[in-house]
């Protein structure tokens, strides 16, 4: 009788942390965005499977005049883009933080989106919106349509802060457990899509 041998299980490797870029959409003076951003970043910092980079459009302003199709950017534009574009390109996933202005999202966020294209391709986006009664939901619905055109994948579950200013205490700490739970659900879904799409892009480059 021939003895049978059992091969040892193949070693498992832990995937490299997912690179998540938080894109802060508001540039308005006195904006509430920094409070929301710190809260979301705190959740990301607690995760071993994600590394975070905060891209604040108020700190990295982009020109509002785009070049003609097929033409290079105007002098000085390249330097401004260099503070944003490589960080978006390096990201495996995004979290957009947006208020709602006039039933939509800020022009500063649209401008940043329009300056880029392939940086969004085959990458997932989670949304965190804030506002008054609507909680920024209309801004998110507009963003979904735009980002679909740019071949991105938007996460179903969002984080929507209704009457956001009343959800944080004087120390700017979140006081609503349901909102913290919503962040975890959204980030769990974002992680699933980010890993799946990163592996897919690695196996076969995405063709728009």
Essential attributes:
6 helices; six-stranded parallel β-sheet; 208 residues; alpha/beta; single chain
What does this 3D model show about the protein?
With 208 residues, the protein is an alpha/beta fold. Helices cover 35% and strands 17% of the residues. The chain contains six helices and six strands, in the order βαβααβαβαββα. The chain has helices at residues 33-45, 77-82, 85-90, 107-114, 137-149, 177-203, and strands spanning 18-24, 50-56, 93-99, 124-131, 153-154, 159-162. Strands 1, 2, 3, 4, 5 and 6 form a six-stranded parallel β-sheet that branches. Strand 4, helix 5 and strand 5 (153-154) form a beta-alpha-beta unit. The radius of gyration is 20 Å and the shape is globular. The N and C termini lie far apart (58 Å).
Question: Could you give a quick summary of the protein structure above?
Answer:
This protein has 208 residues and is of the alpha/beta class. The chain has helices at 33-45, 77-82, 85-90, 107-114, 137-149, 177-203, and strands spanning 18-24, 50-56, 93-99, 124-131, 153-154, 159-162.
């Amino acid at each position: 009788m021939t003895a049978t041998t059992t091969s040892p299980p193949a070693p498992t490797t832990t995937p490299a942390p997912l690179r998540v870029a938080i894109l802060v959409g508001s540039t308005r003076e006195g904006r509430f965005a920094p409070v929301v951003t710190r809260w979301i970043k705190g959740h990301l910092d607690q995760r071993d499977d994600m590394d975070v980079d905060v891209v604040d459009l108020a700190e990295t302003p982009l020109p509002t005049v785009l070049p003609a199709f097929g033409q290079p950017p105007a002098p000085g534009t390249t330097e401004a883009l260099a503070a944003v574009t490589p960080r978006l390109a390096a990201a495996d996933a995004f979290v957009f933080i947006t208020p709602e202005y006039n039933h939509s999202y800020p022009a500063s966020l649209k401008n940043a989106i329009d300056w880029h294209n392939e940086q969004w391709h085959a990458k997932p986006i989670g949304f965190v919106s804030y506002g008054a009664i609507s909680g920024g939901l209309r801004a998110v619905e507009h963003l979904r349509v735009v980002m679909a055109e740019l071949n991105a994948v938007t996460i179903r579950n969002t984080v929507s802060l209704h009457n956001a200013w009343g959800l944080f205490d004087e120390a700017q700490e979140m006081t609503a457990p349901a909102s913290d739970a919503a962040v975890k659900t959204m980030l769990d879904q974002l992680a699933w899509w980010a890993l799946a799409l990163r592996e897919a892009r690695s196996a076969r480059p995405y063709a728009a």
